[in-house]
Amino acid sequence: YIYCNGTLLMAVNFHELYNDSKTFVDMPMRYDPDYILKQFNTEFHNVSIENINKTKLKVFVDEHFTPAGSEMMSCTPMDWHPQPAKLMTIADPQLREWALKLNAIWLTLCRKIDPVVEHDNSRHSIIYLPNNFIMPGGRFREFYYWDAYWIIKGLVACEMYDTTKAMIENLGSVVERYGFIPNGGRVYYLQRSHPPLLAGMLYEYYEATEDKDFMKSMLSIIEKELQFWENNRKVNVTINGVMHTVFRYSSRSNMPRPESYLVDIQKAQSVADKTRFWQDVASAAESGWDFSTRWFGDKRTIYTIETTNILPVDLNAFICWNYELLEYFFERIGNQVKSEFYRETRAKFRDTVHKKLGVLEYPGGVPTSMVRDSEEQWDFPNGFSPLNHMIVEGLRKSQNAQMQDA
Length: 406
Fold this sequence. Notes:
This protein is mainly alpha-helical. Among the domains are: 7-64, no CATH class; 72-113 and 127-232, no CATH class. It has 17 helices and five strands. It has a three-stranded antiparallel β-sheet with strand order 1-2-3. A two-stranded antiparallel ribbon has the order 4-5. Helix 9 runs antiparallel to helix 10 and helix 10 packs antiparallel against helix 11. It is globular. The chain starts with 6 loop residues before the first helix and ends with a helix. The model is unreliable at 359-365 (pLDDT under 50).
């Protein structure tokens, strides 16, 4: 709770002890949280947050917390190779060199969580993972859910199948613990998820290795995660007099995001309904598009954000893909009953996505956004890898030769 809300968190952010709110909530505790809170309340008794001495507060934090990320250890993926066979088949020498440089980056991003976290997790915001993993990098020291999908595609391309399997096992352990996969590997992310791509990760691994035993062992976990979305993110809407079931992003949190606490507090100053604002901000973060004018009521400013009122085509397409992959997996292990169930579920849901959400109605392209003067990163002119990949895959899988060439 120190990492998610409370006076200590508020004080650290009010006095801006760090340039990034995420720094404090990533710092392991030297002592049990109850003891730290008792000491904080004793030292700053009857002092309002704004009147706390900043220097004394910084000393207190340094005495009771260790540096951000100190529960992590660098590691070397044992299946890494400097010249993966698949990359060496790239004909263009410049592209091949670029791919090999990317392959070398795996060595800088591999992390292992200190085993002490597993046995004393109350002092850490990190969610314990049993295996090594590849982190995104920069301020993102932990796993991130949908980021992991493209990391795994890269690992498979580099023939790092053991590391791929280990990362999928990590995420499976998170589902078994919490019933879903949070946005990232910190306790303060447990109020929201990320686009559901665990089944897609398993598909990438299975297609490369044909490891049927592992695939089979993961199916109950894939179904459990899908159940989370069906139980918590599904809504019924009436379109042209007909009831349809669709999905939306909708975080349970209605407070400032701990990792962006100060920004969320500042942004909410001019908003009347702050709790609704913070829920919609967290829900936009759940989408991975944090932030884009697609979530804004006026298509201009974050103050009009209304994520929970929007039925995103991309989320519903991801859910549809989950049904398709489960159909495929169960067919591969000979469970025709479940395979047929997911085939029928997918067919019905796919019809809703195509006919009711307008997925194919945009004329002449699939823009991230055409808002040219936005201050948000998920807007024109930025092109993000996840969207480019989806467009490329859509063109590649089409039946149109011209689109395939494109």
